[in-house]
């Protein structure tokens, strides 16, 4: 094999008494795609940050192109040709796509920014990813999937020698994912080394050459063949036998809780959608990116307006002007973007849980003890691995998602909407969230799950509503739903 472009030896990282990485060694060769796998909290992001210059190791050494390498800043790593594409979006919404792609690296002409060249070069990167948007458009208002593609275009424009892709397809649909894979294969053929982090096992099989597994901050396993059985890989990640992923689903009652009739949006993102969700039922919503899934459930949760149709809860028509109206009536939503829309990440876990339940805790001054007791009970009930006094920003993605779920489920809602509930979450945490969803349905709550992961929507749903280009393409019962029948409807 060729000489590695990047070598790590004995990398460790401590935060006070907490050791998050222990003696990790890793090589990446030119033209190689190495999968870096592990549960949330295994140390993947910390290791990526060390390589990309945003963190410094407590121990260990690195070499880059055969020379000692110890970047003090991300800028230094980028200047060396190492680029990290974060799972969490880092775009400036008020700037254009082109400005975001070239921020800090403006193409210049006669001492001023050459905007024509900047837009042209940004448009070329968007075309590589089959993203058909004008580079002059502001990032604000773009879907999460399109923002992710802009982040990837930004990295491609840097002509990197090593790319670290952290959950790059978490918000992408099938077509966008395949466009990204085409670029990964092209970069690999050009000798670019790639570290690929993902919780989607099928992607790992398709796109990577070798698999390295971290668990509790240590390198525990390497698989030289990406065709290694998924079960074997996952069991090395979690350190235990994996008996099942999806729980048995309860049988829904015959009583409809939520009834949607002829619902349409002012901007046409969805139109003439009708369905009901029964007590104890989990209704999955599937469709390609841009099909109107998120827009539909945001309208049901009062976050977006409707221009036609009705929303009825237990036979009573609702007029929802804002999310507070929906919450007051018993409809809550776990949003797609947990950090921007679901949590105040700079505040404590307990504070986040209390914010959504102030009316339940009483009026006027609330004692710190009452708030702490309430939050501690929610943390314990929903299996959050953390203390209520910890900052939400300190948690892994899976535990952050559990906090968002906990703060709403403590309200004892009648309808729960979950938009991409396991986006960017590891296998172990994903299974526990599926258990929470199934347990919720067993109590008689009506549950709606939106997911771009077809295996997920098939595994957790009693029925599946399929949207295609904003229209209702059909509703499939569990016994007739499979990947073929869903995709046939999604592509009508």
Automatic annotation (TrEMBL):
Similarity comment text for this entry: Belongs to the ABC transporter superfamily.
Entry-linked CDD domains: ABC_Carb_Monos_I, ABC_Carb_Monos_II
Encoding gene, per UniProt annotation: rbsA
ABC transporter domain mapped to chain residues: 6-241, 252-492
Annotated source species: Neorhizobium galegae bv. orientalis str. HAMBI 540
Membrane topology of this protein: Peripheral membrane protein
A Pfam family per the record: ABC_tran
InterPro entries referenced in this protein's UniProt entry, alphabetically: AAA+_ATPase, ABC_carbohydrate_import_ATPase, ABC_transporter-like_ATP-bd, ABC_transporter-like_CS, P-loop_NTPase
Single GO molecular function: ATP hydrolysis activity
Protein name stated in the entry: Ribose ABC transporter, ATP-binding protein RbsA
